[in-house]
Amino acid sequence: MISCTYPGCCNEATHILVDYSNEAIEPHEVFCDEHAFEDEREQCCCYPDAWHFYVEDDDGETIELRLELTYSVGTLDSKRCCRHHP
Question: pLDDT (tens digit, 9 = 90+) per residue, 7-33?
């Protein structure tokens, strides 16, 4: 399991913070459903699907997880889409 990185939260992570090209931001910031879109984080309106990422779990092991994407405010274009969508 990998826990949400939101301060004080121990819920399982379901989302990962990515850039405009859907590359994970280092160090990985992962969030549960409850915190994925707090602090003005956004979702691409064209691409709600999940991607596979290699992340370190709570035990320090690198694992592959399917995580949904979340973006920092201002990362998406004016149509609220990522790089993969015109």
Answer: 999 999 999 999 999 999 999 999 999
Question: pTM of the entire structure?
Answer: 0.92
Backbone phi and psi for residue 23, each to the nearest 5 degrees, phi listed first: -95, 135
What single letter denotes the amino acid at residue 86?
Answer: P
For residue 67, count other CB atoms closer than 10 A to its CB. Answer: 22
Residue 18 amino acid letter:
V
Burial 21-60 (b: 16+ CB within 10 A, else e): ebebeeebbbbbeebbeeeebbbbeebeeeeebebeeeee
Give the span between the Cα atoms of 83 and 77, in whole angstroms. 8
Structure tokens at 25: 């931001």
